[in-house]
Amino acid sequence: MSHYCDLAPGHPFHGPYHDTEYGFPVDDDRALFERLVLEINQAGLSWLTVLKKRAAFRLAFEDFHIDRIANYAEEDRQRLLSDAGIIRNRLKVDAVIHNAGVVQSLRSEHGSFKAWLDHHHPLPHADWVKLFRKTFRFTGPEIVGEFLMSTGYLNGAHRDDCPVQARILTAGPAWQST
Hints:
178 residues; mainly alpha; Endonuclease III, domain 1; 12 helices; globular
């Protein structure tokens, strides 16, 4: 079975993501929200499709400005559903808007999305899935697992012999402290 560490290096889209983002700790709430949005939109599609559309997602969702997205009205929803640059799935678009409001609440209660994640860390994958399903829309085991691996909360983004893994360990991912 191929691993992302085998497929990504040198690829124009996978390579940069693999080498500089995937598995590294993320402190910024916008970046965390972007990862959640991208993982939700990947459901049923290839990760390459999502990476190719990433710039369009950033534009369509105003650089993942959580407060703006949480306040999107029907005209924004229609704009997004007619934007050929992104994935035009009503359930996914509605989930992004709803989840932005959830992140606002988490920030009010915990100070930040990251603080909420830190508050619940460490949890086994199955418990993370239960928590995310209770908290967010359109989150299942694969979405939650990839989101948490991509942001350094769960181990497994890279093989131990991948050169990127050493840089991730130096960055101190949350899973390392468990």
